[in-house]
């Protein structure tokens, strides 16, 4: 036999480093396993490719179209012109290119959707892990509050807060995060409770692990895959929420997002002017992004939630 | 569709739409209906109080001086301001204002609208039927359609029917409600001229009952279509995953062994069991119903509570915003309570445990 055996992993200098190396290689293996399971799902891959294209377009918007295309005063087209060679998707009521607006709008819609989701997920995971782990009065209280937020109609709360706090990108993000963290909390709390009862946590406790160590080293890594799946499904609802709020006129008046484009379209009578080119591009953009995130999220869920294995998606 | 309501997120733990009714009772061990009822009623009461507190906090403390908003367009002397303050009760200490607010809300004395100069209670009574007509019709249609398709989808998991309907449902669910409404208006009202563009009735209709009813029905078609299209996918996915949970069970094999046809096995044995967990989800999704009706009413200028709420933002008519905030939140809390109470009667497992 001349085939060379795979070289053994280099000996670690200290037991501590060896442990870390072991943990890292296991993590890589489990990542590769999950990735293989994800790759096997056609819709998940389509969603991922779609998302990739959209993110690249959003990042490249300044290179593709100059920012001056968004300026009301420098607009070159006529009022609500149908698509032409100069304006492939027509113009809005002041003569700006709808194509340029939609392209630039993607940046804001994605930014707000992603940021709000990250904030909501961080709050949700923190509250979920701590309430599940600590329990007692704190756990009870956290559960009641998250239940309360879950039951309240999210759009009503968001509208009320934005009407009072004023319209800006920051408040939009904060308000969307505030109405969407509770779902993650419930999910994470339930998962924390199951992890808590496993023997390896008892072992950690017996060896004298503190609460912080238990939560960050043992519970969190077990909860994160589920969090990732739920985050991916939270982004589309955050984007839809942002577009609804902006369409109602509660968005930041100084920026262009897909919702705000549609708000201007409504206010300026695009529907009665039969200006389909004004309505279709931003709306379809929202639809495609939301759909792409949903496809990815459902695929991730199928990977991390064994109950769903074997589902066609 | 906005953030909450049923999510077509695969068979995600379906009760993510809210607390699972009954689970808490089970933890406590056996208890009678009285105890179960007390537990949930008191929980709902605390939630309602929290809504009252937070609405006072949001609208009185965070928001600026209502006098500034009321008098924004005309110059007013300090005396006039003071008089207006006294009239609205704003010169009194905060705790007393809070007490007045709580007692007022509980006795249905919601104050006057800034915009209409009329009692808010009257406004709500006037506009409630329109909202119930639109969201009630839409919700019933969405539930029926969603459950009908969801049952057949889950029963033949992976079939062409299943994949086609899941894809269509997801596609419609991904569309923003307001945008779908605008497109529907553009196509069916503007291009084809089949339906009225907005509103609930035309001024030219004769005042007799039947012409009026037909006119309202004619106006109702497009809003209900939009609403149902966006919402039904959630119910489809709920029913589908509920059927999937039943599919491997022994009692279905028994039913087949008795020689029942496939349709009979599905409709007489699988569906009743699968319906059980979905009943509560229908109630829990009421938050989504409120969200959907706000947007749909605004797109179609439907004279209901949702469009009143949106109008009030821009006036700004703070007493109306506050009253509707409490009303919408209270209705979702009470719907969840109703679901929990209903669950006691339809699922004997809670009683036995």
UniProtKB/TrEMBL annotation, chain A:
Positions of transmembrane segments: 43-65, 108-129, 141-163, 223-241, 275-300
GO biological process, one term: transmembrane transport
Topological type in the membrane: Multi-pass membrane protein
Domain ABC transmembrane type-1 stretches: 106-297
Subcellular locations according to the entry: Cell membrane; Membrane
Main location per the UniProt record: membrane
GO CC terms in record: plasma membrane
Recorded family membership: Belongs to the binding-protein-dependent transport system permease family.
Protein name: Peptide/nickel transport system permease protein
Species in which this protein is naturally found: Glycomyces sambucus
Higher taxonomy: Bacteria, Bacillati, Actinomycetota, Actinomycetes, Glycomycetales
From TrEMBL, chain B:
UniProt-annotated location(s): Cell membrane
Gene3D superfamilies from the UniProt entry: MetI-like (1.10.3720.10)
Biased composition (Low complexity): 9-24
Domain ABC transmembrane type-1 positions: 128-346
Superkingdom of origin: Bacteria
Record PANTHER family: OLIGOPEPTIDE TRANSPORT SYSTEM PERMEASE PROTEIN
Record-given protein name: Peptide/nickel transport system permease protein
Pfam families, per the entry: BPD_transp_1, BPD_transp_1_N
InterPro entries reported in the protein's UniProt record: BPD_transp_1_N, MetI-like, MetI-like_sf
GO cellular component, as recorded: plasma membrane
């Amino acid at each position: 036999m001349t085939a060379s055996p795979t070289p053994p992993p280099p000996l670690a200098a200290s037991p501590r480093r060896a442990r870390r190396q072991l943990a890292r290689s296991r993590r890589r293996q489990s990542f590769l396993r999950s990735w293989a399971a994800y790759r096997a799902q056609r819709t998940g891959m389509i969603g991922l490719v779609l998302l990739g294209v959209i993110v690249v377009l959003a990042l490249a918007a300044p290179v593709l179209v100059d920012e001056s295309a968004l300026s009301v005063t420098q607009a070159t087209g006529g009022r609500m012109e149908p698509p032409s060679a100069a304006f492939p998707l027509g113009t809005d009521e002041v003569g700006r290119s709808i194509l340029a607006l939609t392209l630039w709008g993607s940046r804001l819609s994605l930014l707000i959707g992603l940021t709000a989701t990250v904030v909501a997920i961080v709050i949700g995971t923190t509250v979920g892990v701590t309430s599940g782990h600590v329990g007692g009065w704190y756990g009870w209280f956290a559960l009641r509050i998250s239940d309360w937020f879950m039951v309240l109609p999210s759009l009503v709360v968001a509208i009320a807060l934005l009407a009072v706090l004023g319209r800006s990108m920051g408040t939009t993000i904060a308000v969307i995060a505030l109405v969407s963290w509770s779902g993650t909390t419930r999910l994470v709390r339930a998962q924390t409770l199951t992890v808590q009862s496993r023997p390896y946590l008892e072992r950690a406790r017996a060896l004298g692990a503190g609460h912080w160590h238990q939560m960050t080293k043992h519970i969190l890594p077990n909860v994160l895959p589920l969090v990732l799946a739920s985050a991916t499904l939270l982004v589309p609802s955050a984007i839809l929420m942002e577009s609804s709020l902006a369409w109602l006129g509660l968005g930041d008046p100084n920026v262009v997002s897909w919702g705000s484009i549609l708000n201007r379209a409504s206010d300026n009578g695009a529907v009665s002017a039969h200006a389909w080119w004004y309505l279709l591009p931003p709306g379809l953009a929202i639809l495609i992004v939301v759909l792409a995130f949903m496809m990815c999220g459902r695929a991730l869920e199928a990977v991390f939630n064994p109950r769903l294995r074997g589902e066609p998606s | 569709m906005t953030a909450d309501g049923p999510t077509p997120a695969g068979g995600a733990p379906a009760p993510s739409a809210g607390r699972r009714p009954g689970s808490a009772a089970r933890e406590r061990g056996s208890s009678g209906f009285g105890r179960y009822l007390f537990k949930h009623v008191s929980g709902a009461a605390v939630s309602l109080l929290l809504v009252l507190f937070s609405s006072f906090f949001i609208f009185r403390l965070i928001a600026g001086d209502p006098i500034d908003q009321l008098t924004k367009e005309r110059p007013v002397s300090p005396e006039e301001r003071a008089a207006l303050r006294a009239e609205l009760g704003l010169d009194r200490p905060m705790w007393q204002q809070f007490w007045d607010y709580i007692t007022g809300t509980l006795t249905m004395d919601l104050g006057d609208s800034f915009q209409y100069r009329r009692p808010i209670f009257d406004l709500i009574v006037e506009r409630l039927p329109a909202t119930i007509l639109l969201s009630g019709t839409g919700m019933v249609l969405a539930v029926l359609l969603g459950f009908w398709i969801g049952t057949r989808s889950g029963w033949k998991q992976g079939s062409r029917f299943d994949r086609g309907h899941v894809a269509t449902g997801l596609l419609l669910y991904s569309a923003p409600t307001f945008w779908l409404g605008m497109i529907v208006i553009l196509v069916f009202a503007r291009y084809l001229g089949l339906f009225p563009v907005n509103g609930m009735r035309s001024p030219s209709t004769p005042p007799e009952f039947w012409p009026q009813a037909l006119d309202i029905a004619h106006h109702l078609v497009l809003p209900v279509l939009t609403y149902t299209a966006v919402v039904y996918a959630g119910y489809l996915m709920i029913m589908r995953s509920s059927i999937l949970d039943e599919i491997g069970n022994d009692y279905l094999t028994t039913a087949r062994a008795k020689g029942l046809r496939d349709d009979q096995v599905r409709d007489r044995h699988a569906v009743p069991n699968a319906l059980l967990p979905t009943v509560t989800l229908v109630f829990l999704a009421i938050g989504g119903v409120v969200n959907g009706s706000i947007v749909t009413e605004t797109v179609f200028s439907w004279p209901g509570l949702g469009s009143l709420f949106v109008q009030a933002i821009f006036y700004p008519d703070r007493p109306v915003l506050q009253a509707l905030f409490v009303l919408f939140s209270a209705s979702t809390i009470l719907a969840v309570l109703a679901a929990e109470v209903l669950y006691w009667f339809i699922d004997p497992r809670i009683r036995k445990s």
